[in-house]
Amino acid sequence: MTKITDYFGELVFNKKVMRERLSNDTYEKLMATIYNGSPLDDSIAENIAHAMKEWAISQGATHFTHWFQPQRGGTAEKHDSFITYSHDNEIIERFSGKQLIQSEPDASSFPSGGIRSTFEARGYTAWDPTSPAFLLETGKTKTLVIPSVFLSWTGEVLDLKTPYLRSVRCLNDACIKLQRILGNRLARRITVNCGPEQEYFIVSKKLYDTRPDLRICGRTLFGAVPPKGQQMEDHYFGAIPEKMTRFMEKLDHELYRRGIPAKTRHNEVSPNQFELALLFEDANLAIDHNLQVMNVMKGVADEFGFVVLLHEKPYAGVNGSGKHVNWSISDNTGANYLEPSASPLKNINFLLTLGALMLGVDKFGGLLRACVADAGNDHRLGANEAPPAIMSIYLGEYLTNLIDQIENIDNLNEQTMANINLGVRNLPKISKDYSDRNRTSPIAFTGNKFEFRAVGSSQNPSEAVTVLNQICAYGLFIIEKRMMQEKGKDVRENALRVLKEVFKETRRIRFEGNGYSDAWQKEGASLGLPNAKNTPAALPSYLTKDVIDLMEGTHVLTERELKAKVDIKLETYIKTKEIEFKTAINMARTLILPAITKQISLTAGAVANMKNAGCNSELLLQDAKTYEVLYLKIKEKIIELEEQVNTSKKDMFSKANFYADIAEKTLLELRKVVDKAEELVANEFWPMAKYQELLTIL
Ligand code: ADP
Ligand code: MG
């Protein structure tokens, strides 16, 4: 047995390799860029590129690629070989500093929301030195991968990494400014930490292949819920089946080779649903790693005859999948700003960070909902099995009491401050046991971090982290302004004065109860909390004045970039729905109706035989009638859905809303009849694997 640490990161151009292959000077300069945010010294790019190439070739790579995160989701890459002509026209292998820093993929097919018209379709990718280069392994092929951002030639954002990096810069400035006010001279730079928990389903490839809906849409559009679904709840944390254990072992192994710190693996609530959590890291890395995890999973699954389903809702009637994004802020001294401590000033800092996030959630609930909105996640949010679409914060009883106490302070003296400090210090002991009990909350405080649970399992977590950073920076900005009003005062007293206001103002977003209940839906509405039911309803939040101001004020996106983002999201939504509708129509017509036809002719034949034999064929005739009714109903719904798909609308929002409100309903009606047919038609005629099989423990 080899130890994990023996091969951890063997596919990464990591510090160990860099120390071996770079000169001291180059190494130090690169580290300064990675850890202190110093601008990259151009003169070292040539050396780094050379060292990367030599290392990659020694590992068997022939090509390199810039790897980036287009707005449509997932990742993108374009491979180039290292070969070029030498001065005397010989083929040599070369990778220049220029090639490392910048590349020009043919970007015309990436959505830009109108930012690039086709005649100026060029975009470029630029190296992000804060995320290490690594080797992509596809079968035996190895490619040197350069994590990059993606911009248009006019400097506009075309990806998800650029806004993320900008949001960190802004949060950094806001945090450090507040630290100075609190008298902290040691904090110079913050890190945003993120530990994503990835949920996923596994299905046998053989069964998956029988289902065009799974293959094309990633989710089942039809399928009767089996008698034994997840009612028994016997899968959660249950023993992991052997083949699955081997899959997970291989997956972890592959992740370790890529320097990805996979930590926890277990069964989830639904049959064949699992979770993989990573140790938390700098969020930039955690995001890049999560994107790799989603890719690596698919490859490893293939070796086992499995398919990984990352869709938020592969099956109706059983739980969907999310990606809990754990988020916290720490600084160069190692202090975690969401961690209670023995030091009173750190505890003030903890409460202020908490207050800042509450201000942000209070003001930008609509934005938080919008940043996780897509066709897949619409099936989860608000569907009583995942966090509701109302963005509230769960703090746990202990912290809630503490905040109530602060809200009600009328006399700030040494004693009250000491009490509060003691309260915060006791928090970890209490929250270990209690903080994570409420699974119905979209944003929960879990001891030393916040857990944003509304993120979809297939989504790039980058947008969620970006928004958390921005709204926290917004809150810190307000807090700082208020503290500056009484600059001369004792800083702790001043902070508590501000916190008292903040906690009062944001009371409506604190919710400790059952987020799935109807009562909360009503209460949320009366509190004025946004509660968008689906993507087209959620997206307009992006275009409100408050959000535009936030985006521009935090220098994350310009108004033009923001509008482009909304266009892309709408377009993606419309395309996704259209593909689902068309797939459903096609399956109903070419698979389901023929199956019913076979059943009808079998039954009709039986009726005739019974009659010939002089038996009573009444019951069989009734059956035939039932099949006929189903057949006609399905036909009717196919035609209705087809008309709806082809209806033209005046703009994208109208179209998206029409799909969400009208066509989706028709799809569900079609599904209902098909599922009824599934329960009646003979097994031998049913043209695809049923839920019962798909969800059978592997
Ligand atoms: P739970 O199931 O209670 O949410 P897990 O242990 O499954 O707990 O998940 C915790 C996740 O939170 C892990 O991915 C871990 O890396 C991450 N995490 C832990 N501490 C922090 C932190 N300070 N900042 C960000 N993420 C964290
Ligand atoms: Mg969790």
Key features?
single chain; 698 residues; alpha+beta; nine-stranded mixed beta sheet; six-stranded mixed beta sheet; 23 helices; 17 strands; 50% helix; 13% strand; binds adenosine-5'-diphosphate; binds magnesium ion
Helix content: 40-55%
Oligomer kind? single chain
How many helices? The count is 23
For the termini, the CA-CA separation is: 27 Å
Query: Total strand count, please?
Result: 17
Proportion of beta-strand residues: 5-15%
Nearest-integer average pLDDT: 92
Ligands present: adenosine-5'-diphosphate, magnesium ion
From the alpha carbons, calculate the radius of gyration and give it in angstroms. Answer: 28 Å
Helix-strand makeup class:
alpha+beta
Largest sheet composition: 9 strands, mixed
Shape: globular
Task: Give a description of the structure.
Strand 7 and strand 8 form a beta hairpin. The protein has helices at residues 4-7, 15-21, 24-36, 42-58, 97-101, 161-181, 205-208, 212-217, 242-257, 283-303, 344-363, 365-370, 397-407, 414-434, 462-484, 491-505, 518-526, 535-538, 545-553, 559-612, 618-646, 652-680, 691-694, and strands spanning 61-68, 76-81, 83-85, 91-93, 102-103, 123-127, 134-138, 141-152, 190-204, 262-267, 273-278, 281-282, 306-309, 323-331, 393-394, 443-445, 450-452. The protein is globular. The longest helix has 54 residues, at 559-612. Strands 9, 10, 11, 12, 13, 14, 15, 16 and 17 form a 9-stranded mixed sheet that branches. Strands 1, 2, 5, 6, 7 and 8 form a 6-stranded mixed sheet that branches. A two-stranded antiparallel sheet has the order 3-4. 50% of the residues lie in helices and 13% in strands. The protein contains 23 helices and 17 strands. With 698 residues, it is of the alpha+beta class. Helix 11 (344-363) runs parallel beside helix 16 (491-505) and helix 21 (618-646) packs antiparallel against helix 22 (652-680). Adenosine-5'-diphosphate is lined by residues 193-195, 197, 264, 277-280, 324, 326-328, 336, 436, 448-449, 451.
